[in-house]
């Protein structure tokens, strides 16, 4: 990495159909996406030269765009091909891939019907979302004051830029108090997810995870549920109330960036980095690397 600033790195960025030099992939300050958060994006990881579940990510990218009323002027295949070509151009075998779709500059107000839709893809090296030491000991989460919004107050199933405002606020508050991340409850007060990852719990050899009815149903989440079922574990998707946190033995996060990350604390509650969590961590690693 040439620099710590993301607007100043080496390599190419795919933007609106062209591979541009990294520093030339620019947008104007009067861009609808920047003022009104009209942008959707994906987070993908490549392992051993292959982007894991690329098609699923591209489908979710287009679904998110549709939820925000954006008609993408590219096909799924064009985006998949651009991701794969860019990975090769960047020359990484393990990397993070970030496609984004946004509204341009033709209209600068709440209404945006005439705005052109743009797309870009950037790929960089991002070894671990959380520090490897914190991850192995189990991450420490605080409980956020922010709630995941109700489905009739925001496009909650889209991976939309605007939904991350409360995630950044939650994560900043957690980090300021020495935590790694924050757990968010939802508008009903049920356990929802972390600021950029889904959450799972283990109790009595069974796995519990909140039903994703007002937050992202992560691709990693679904992958890990399948891995757990493959081990004959019972996976229960249901509403989880905060007063249940005390009774869970193990807890872990799942996400493309976070992968499977064990938790040691959520607010006042402690968890062990136990066998089921460790098994799923190893399994996930083997699967994404094509070794399973
Ligand atoms: N929830 C949020 C808020 C996220 O940002 C992510 C990461 N994309 C996830 C859950 C997990 O989704 P995935 O497993 O598809 O990366």
Keywords:
D-amino Acid Aminotransferase, Chain A, domain 1, alpha+beta, 29% strand, D-amino Acid Aminotransferase, Chain A, domain 2, nine-stranded mixed β-sheet, 292 residues, binds 4'-deoxy-4'-aminopyridoxal-5'-phosphate, 27% helix, seven-stranded antiparallel β-sheet
Describe what this molecule looks like in 3D.
The protein is α+β, with helices and mostly antiparallel strands. The chain has two domains: 12-124, D-amino Acid Aminotransferase, Chain A, domain 1; 132-288, Alpha-Beta Barrel (D-amino Acid Aminotransferase, Chain A, domain 2), CATH 3.20.10.10. Helices cover 27% and strands 29% of the residues. It has helices at residues 32-36, 54-67, 76-90, 132-137, 165-176, 219-230, 275-288; strands at 12-15, 18-21, 39-41, 44-47, 50-51, 95-103, 117-124, 139-148, 181-186, 191-194, 198-203, 206-210, 235-238, 250-255, 259-266, 269-270. Strands 8, 9, 10, 11, 12, 13, 14, 15 and 16 form a nine-stranded mixed beta sheet that branches. The structure holds 4'-deoxy-4'-aminopyridoxal-5'-phosphate.
